[in-house]
Amino acid sequence: MPGREMLSEKKPSRNLAIELARVTEAAALSAARFMGRDDKEGADQASVDAMRMMLNTVDMNGVVIIGEGEKDEAPMLYNGELLGTGILPDMDIAVDPIDGTTPLAKGRDNSIATVALAPRGTMFDPGPFVYMDKIAVGPLCRGVIDIEKPVAENLQAIAKAQGKRQEDITVVMLDRPRNQDLMDQARACGARIRLITDGDVAGALMTAWPDSGIDVLLGIGGTPEGVLAACAIRAMGGEIQGKLFARNDEELKRGQEMGYNFEQVLTMDDLVSSDDVFFAATGITDGELLDGVKYQPHGARTDSLVVRGLTGTVRQIRAVHSFEKLEKVSGIQY
């Protein structure tokens, strides 16, 4: 009988991404009731409870690398939390039960539920450092970007790779004062800009989704979101680069003392070093990437994106759910 160490190195033979779709569907269905209610805490609680319950049904020995902080911040899915049934394979987990909590609370677009898995030890652990400068593109532009180059050079390279004029390139970025210089540079190039208020996992994924109309994500956003996006973009054939961003001198000093290099360019291999990744996202509110939850008599419809890295297969799953039957087997009040 092979030992646990040998078995843990074996790549998963089943498509865990399909199982993750059930996780994000449950989170989205639970959170969608809070659309426009201006209750971020209630939405987070509902989504987390559903996600935790469903992740614990997945046959894996999972540990949360990208979560919502340390254990004392529970009931969030916290860093270091063990999830799954406890059997092999050993997996790292990245979660964002609601990417775009504010848009959901305000009844706006582009709120999604997301989760990613990768073999144990292959996900970048950002520790307490929550901001990252990022650039992300789709498959046609893989290998042509460089986060350390000026915006104009990157946009020129992206336009050339896609056979477009630079004026036809659409940039998505978070609408934050910290991104103002990048906005000004992109505008000076004549590029179109799509500003989003939250949810830069969805923003990054749009670059690799052919029908989204988005060519590149630029700007400083969340580090956890960067790792989540890297799992999906790697599987979808695109590219993402990042650099940790210190909000002040104290944070920079703390990071350096902990061994983090804020000047290092984090490539996809740094953010997630395995091709054996799994990712799922389900729309909570409508967006360019996915439709939100649509309520029907006795149930609801969901729209999900499911990605497996080994095969590069990207599935869009539209599911119809019966609340009466779901509540009997899950215990979740939808």
Give the biggest sheet. Answer: 8 strands, mixed
Overall average pLDDT: 90
Apparent shape: globular
H and E string: HHHEEEHEEHEHEHEHEHHEEEEH
Given as residue ranges, the uncertain stretches (5+ residues, pLDDT < 50) are 1-7
Radius of gyration: 19 Å
Strand content: 25-35%
Q: Which structural class should the secondary elements be placed in?
A: alpha+beta
Q: Oligomerization state of this entry? A: single chain
The tally of helices reads 11
Helical percentage: 25-40%
End-to-end distance, in Å? 44 Å
Secondary structure tally: strands: 13
Give an overview in words.
- This protein is of the alpha+beta class and 334 residues long.
- It has 11 helices and 13 strands.
- The protein has helices at 4-8, 16-32, 40-55, 101-106, 151-162, 180-188, 200-207, 223-236, 249-257, 268-271, 323-330; strands spanning 61-66, 82-83, 90-99, 112-119, 131-137, 170-174, 192-196, 216-222, 239-244, 278-283, 294-296, 299-308, 313-322.
- The strands form 2 sheets. Strands 1, 2, 3, 4, 10, 11, 12 and 13 form an 8-stranded mixed beta sheet that branches. Strands 7-6-8-5-9 form a 5-stranded mixed beta sheet, sandwiched between helices.
- Strand 11 (294-296) and strand 12 form a beta hairpin.
- The relative contact order is 0.16.
- The model is unreliable at 1-7 (pLDDT under 50).
